[in-house]
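Protocol step 4 of 6: structure prediction from sequence.
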Amino acid sequence: MTNAGRACVVLPTYDERENLPAIVPAILATSPELDVLVVDDDSPDGTGLLADQLAAREPRVRVLHRARKEGLGRAYLAGFEVALRAGYGRILEMDADFSHEPERLPALLAASRDADLVLGSRYVPGGGTSHWGVWRRLLSRGGSLYARIILGVHVRDLTGGFKCFRREVLERIDLGTVTSAGYAFQIELTYRALRAGFRVVEVPIVFADRRIGQSKMSRAIVLEALWKVWLIRAARWRPRR
């Protein structure tokens, strides 16, 4: 496959016009192995048009336009499908608002040479959060602990969205049956990878509040994660062979 030795960062966007011109070059600068796929959900602020302009100037950037906003999970699944069809050997996900530091991408890529799924983790030695209040820290740590206990897994940061998958993981965990969004989406993908017997490792990252714009996290996303974990545990999903 043409891109088997390369990696693609799937970057969902919705109203990220102010962040996109900075985050895309920052990603590309971290490694010559990396390409970027912007997945825009018809942003009212013109993010999609700006992404097209970036792609016209930079051959390592592609854009997937979606007709409407359907949530982070749906955007990632659509991006994964495009990246798999393009033959990428590794596929990454991250936020477009600098909450995930592009400088940590080489660490994820390096770890992926020996692991099937690499998680950028806030809750291993060296990881952490920046500019978070007490309530946000408790919510995040508590949510991850809650999911770990219910699912019976060792991963410390189950709700994080900074990841690197080897293509074999995404091909085997039956993406077409994933229905979660938000935090639950991140939990479900990692849990499925573990259930399928893939090697999952965590590398430390520091997660910071977005530099520009408003957070996309909502009460509905948090509540979905709380009840969806039980459905994830009860599901009769089996990995593809």
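Step 5 (inspection) to follow. The mean pLDDT is 90.
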